[in-house]
Amino acid sequence: MFVLASTTVNLARAQFATTSLYHFLFVPLTLGLGPIVATMQTLWLRSGDERWLRLTKFFGTLFLINFAIGVATGLVQEFQFGMNWSIYSKYVGNVFGAPLAIEGLAAFFLESTFLGLWIFGWNRLSPRVHLATLWIAVIGSWMSAYFILVANSFMQDPVGYKVENGEAVLTSVWALLSSEWALWAFGHTIFAGLTAGSAVVFGVCCWHFARGRNVELFKPAAKLALIVLVPISCVNLWFGSHFGIIVEELQPMKIAASEAQWDTCSSCSFSLFQIGGFTESDQKPSFSIEVPDMLSFLATGSLHGTVQGLNNLNQQYKQQYRKQFGASQSYLPPVRAIYWSMRGMAYAGSLIALVAIVGAMLYWKKRLEKWRWFCWVGVVTAFLPFVAMTFGWLLTELGRQPWIVQGLLLTDRASSPSVSTTWLVISLTTFVLLYAFLLVLDIGLMRHYANLDPGEADSGEGEAPESPPAVAY
Amino acid sequence: MDLQNLWFVLIGILWAGYFLLEGFDFGVGMLLPFLPRNERERGFMFSTIGPVWDGNEVWLVVAGGATFAAFPSWYATMFSGFYIALLLLLFFLIIRVLSFEWRGKSKSPRWRAVWLGCNAVGSFGASLIWGVAFAALLYGVPINSSGDFSGTFWDLFNLYTVLGGVAVVLVFACHGATFLTLRTTGDLCERAKMAARSLSIAAAIAAGGFLALTVDVAVNHNDKDVFPPILPAAAGILALVLAVVFVFMRRSAWAFAMTALGAMLVVATIFTSLYPRVMVSSTDFANSLTVDGASSQHYTLAVMSVVALICVPIILLYQSWTYHVFRARVGGEEPPHTPVDVLPGKTGDSPTG
Q: Distance between CA B247 and CA B174 in Å, rounded?
């Protein structure tokens, strides 16, 4: 997807990037849309207002369409470690495997089983129990995210282990579960998921407002979406930047790369935009727009803090790992991609918060549904969280390079020795084609269902005359 | 029993659970193109497994995750070695997973037929691959001295492993048919009973042959004695023969219990035949991966044992409750519901029930 390189490691990386980023288009909708739909159903149960029931079913459908594809692509994630990264799997299995297994046992079972109960339980369970099944599924999906991020955090900031006979061995499960990196990543991810879920709900409402349809019905949904979106998207900006301070301590190279900061500095300025300055041979940008002291503030929390530069860190690592990996190994990550990923994420995130605030003001003044052009802005904003999250993961995982486990194992020494380039070409092609096809279908289905009038008798069965309208599948 | 052996048994149980539960899912999927006569019946068939397939598939996710955590080397060698087979498996599982949610949401009859086909092909393909893959673990594949797979895709295939694939497909198809006899009504149920007749005979022959051969392969390829592998093998054959008897006696519940037992005993036979190895090497028997050599350290296993001890009983409780909630037969006058289909004002739903 990114670098069409011929080596197996790069193909394996391209495949992992493609499948993970793709998977993560659907995960946040489960994390974020789930609780919003559950809130709608709770409001219906509490108030008896039929509109909430119609909204629950309307957005529940959008939720389920995406949940299916999230489950399907999630399987690939679990299999891929062993398929493409067998050396990595052997090296970290003792530590990394545990949160994955716990995720399945403690969270994914809960999520899948109770979601099945919710989908089919409308007439079989009492309304209260039925509502509880959805909330339990939501809790399951959040726990699921936590355990997966615990596993991921071991690649970023390994804790609770020792190296024995060339393998990482778990020494403290509590250290692993309470990893600072994991906890911050979890908060950031959940907020991002809620932002995505509420932005999608808001976008769909705006779509209907823009076309002057179902305005009265969608007003409460837009209100609910804004109540979530405004605070969460703003808090997440702060949260993300504070996460940056944690990362500066644990993975200083990542922060240096995300700012293309070659030399160690204090009171460093933050560049909003720059041309050039992204490679070791070209360290000075030919053009840049800078905000004084801002980088020091973002990375350390103080306007005069010291931010370590790429050159220093590279030298430091070279010294530290000379015996293990040889003197020629460079520890510089791909600076240009990381610099722009960081900005893509931050700019998209800020834009979402801005649109949310303006939207809330318009809603408060009862103008939202009248300002058609702003409604179209709201529709477009529904896509922004996905842009932000994709860039966010690129920043996180590219910023870790050349390590697959920070400080322990290098990416290009971790792939499967038994997997040939041919196999990788076959699998990468398969996934890219299949995923592209599914994305087209998914968007088609989403469009169709987002465009329906809630409560309209269209459940996709309309054209099959012999089928009753209520057959589930 | 030390923790390595405990986890070998637990992973065996997870796979057995997967074969038991997803087995009938796959079976129903494979029968989709053959049993129903109209769109209504197709919907009923989908509905019999609709509420539970996702929970069933988690058994696979957990079996995979547990293998990763408890036996990293086994996970690494098996998943990287069976690369193309697992790629195909993922493809089949993906199209199948999507067919559930997306068939009901597709408007055109053509797309609905496509999704139905995806479910059937996915169920068939996934069953076939599991059969071949498990048989290959025991029969042996090329593994070099550093414990890595050193063969090609075709090394997975020989008469024994292909028989394994066919046997698993037939056992699952039959298991699906006996499941449908319990979950449907009317004509559809009658047709499921008829299908169960021929399928149970075919499954008993294929799986019986496979289980008998498995004991032979265990002796000749894995340095085992006839005992103990013969115990689960014989029990499996007995269960599948009894399944035929009960199907013809029209004792549906008993027939289903027997196909369930048969599916689980296939896994039990493979695992019993494997022990103390987890993957047999065909290049040099000494390169085979063993329970002791492939496992994680004591602490990891201890942590996971505690988690499993707490979670598994709870999972069994709520999954059984799911089956209890959806115990009613599907069909006749009362169609199943999804959120999309239940329209306000039409069903009389209200907060107070």
A: 10
